[in-house]
Amino acid sequence: MYSQLFGDPYDGSNEANIFSALEFNSEGNLLASGDHGGSVVIYKCREDTPQKASVGDVNGEENKHKWEVYHQFQSHEQEFDYLKSLEIEEKINHIQWAKPVGGNSFLYTTNDKTIKLWKVGRRMQRTQTASYSSIRDGVLSLNREGTPVSSIAAMPKRSYCNAHAYHINSVSCNSDGETFLSADDLRINWWNSEINTSSFNIVDIKPPNMEELTEVITSAQFHPEHCNIVMYSSSRGSIKLGDTRRSALCDVSAKVFEEPEDAASKSFFSEIVASISDASFAGDGRYIISRDYLTLKVWDTHMETRPVRVININDSLKSMLCELYESDCIFDKFEISVSPDGQRILTGSYGNQFSVWNKAGYAEHSVELQSNGGRPRTREAADAEFEKKVLHCAWNPANNTVALAAQAALYLYKV
Asked: Which partner for 146 in 12, 93, 126, 186 could form a disulfide, CB atoms 3.0-4.6 Å apart?
């Protein structure tokens, strides 16, 4: 297990530098990160001959896969909605890579209200090296000579806006390569990537009276193989699987995956800790992995009544829920990422700790991120520092490299 480090693990004062989104592209050679300041940084994997690790390598091991900053650009700026008198933050909520075309990469980025499609690739620019003027037939002409130079550039292609009244939390590309979905707290919209003026609403859970609101959408994703199947999770701990071939509105005819509530163990915190912070298909889409505050759950799409596996990852926090509630830590949203074969699950926790579990419920790795050159070490969650947490993570679809964001630092590990 080795690590590369980008950013400053001790920079907690500048909120703009705190990471808020991570995503590998489908080839696994590019990694995009977003932060609270609205900027996107793209890292590229460069394969070299084995060499001694440099300053960025925490373990000091020999490795041949080196990551480096490929390009950086400002995706979103802070805005103000004058009609609603609301400030729209520039924070990047989600990043999703689209299908590459002609050697260029494409990715969607979103803040609370606006989704943008970016084209990232090489662009030829002519640099001016000399200029001279001449007079011919009484006409003054200015001639410039230069050499073409290739550089990496991010160019905005489309902006998808005015379709969400609430905060956007998810963007997911469809397997058809032409459409994508976007989800906010109460609605999910289906877009054609070529059309940014309109979208089709496929989920709407907004009640006629907002006082009757009992749940919100926390994440949404297309099936990895079937373009007609949509999955979304809610704050009530349920997962819904909709088929657009059966009904245009997926919330009406969706299959509901929900664990029966245990009345004996119900408490004030039960609904809060049951809220699903992230959910993802595993492998070919037969299984769904979900993460709530205390557990990981493995669901079989052929069995709605209960999860096939419940993995308790934060048991030691059960006695501290009151303290976590008072500090608002109980509302932290931890992401998950699934290995390419669908057999292993990556997630983060407090104390800059991350863990890798298999679907059988056994922990393969549970370590604390280190930035001082030492080896990773294990730590109980109850002993962790709650201001230090790994909320965002991503698993490379081409190998066993994982990316983890802890505050303003990005770590790359081989697991």
From this structure: 126
